[in-house]
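can u do me a favor
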């Protein structure tokens, strides 16, 4: 059984022959993708032997050993063949960024499903740095906090600076969690803005940037889409 965050990641993977789950830990996402027939085969990787052992037990219990390839290794290092999809979820944003930048030669055009607990602008910047763009950003609420799940593909238009900071396709999401997520993000920015304004030596450039970002949220949330919700 997948939680809402992994369910959102599951929804962003399209039917394919081969996919990989990096940092698989318990192996729940890849085994559900296999069981549902979304992916014909999956590579499950982790840098922890104990985590990989957990995933192996899940694979064996679900009788998926003929379709699951478990590999020990750091980041994208274990990926040698071309995958249709690569999932990297359940990590901090700096870790996801480092995995993408250090292993970009192993992406080989695979679509990416990404979810980071922190530092989403760093993840978006890394997506742009490896020549990818975003076509989906889907918010969800899970275990008392909001998460964002991204899908990236090669050949899409580059992200603007504002999109790297705040999101791009996020604002076209049809998720019922979109407006609560944006309100929460706006509140976080406002708290940061108040702290900067009260500093002994205010950073005026950063203050101006946060004011602009807060205004962008305000404009969207007061628009017809923001008041009524959006649909795909």
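np, heres the sequence
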């Amino acid at each position: 059984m997948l939680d809402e965050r992994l369910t959102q990641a599951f929804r962003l993977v399209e039917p394919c022959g081969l996919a990989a789950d990096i940092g698989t830990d318990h192996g729940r996402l890849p085994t559900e993708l296999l069981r549902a027939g979304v992916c014909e085969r999956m590579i499950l990787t982790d840098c922890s032997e104990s985590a990989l052992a957990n995933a192996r037990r899940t694979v064996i219990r679900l009788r998926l050993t003929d379709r699951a390839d478990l590999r020990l290794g750091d980041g994208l290092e274990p990926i040698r063949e071309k995958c249709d999809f690569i999932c990297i979820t359940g990590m901090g944003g700096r870790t996801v960024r480092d995995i993408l930048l250090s292993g970009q030669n192993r992406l080989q055009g695979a679509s990416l499903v990404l979810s980071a607990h922190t530092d989403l602008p760093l993840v978006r910047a890394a997506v742009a740095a490896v020549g990818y763009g975003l076509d989906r950003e889907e918010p969800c609420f899970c275990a008392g906090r909001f998460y964002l799940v991204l899908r990236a593909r090669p050949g899409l238009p580059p992200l603007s600076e504002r999109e790297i900071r705040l999101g791009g396709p996020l604002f076209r999401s049809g998720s019922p969690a979109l407006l609560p997520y944006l309100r929460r993000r706006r509140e976080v920015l406002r708290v940061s803005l108040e702290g900067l304004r009260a500093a002994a030596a205010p950073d005026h450039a950063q203050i101006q940037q946060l004011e602009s970002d807060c205004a962008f949220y305000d404009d969207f949330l007061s628009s017809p889409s923001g008041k009524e919700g959006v649909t795909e």
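Residues 178-228 form one domain. hope that helps!!
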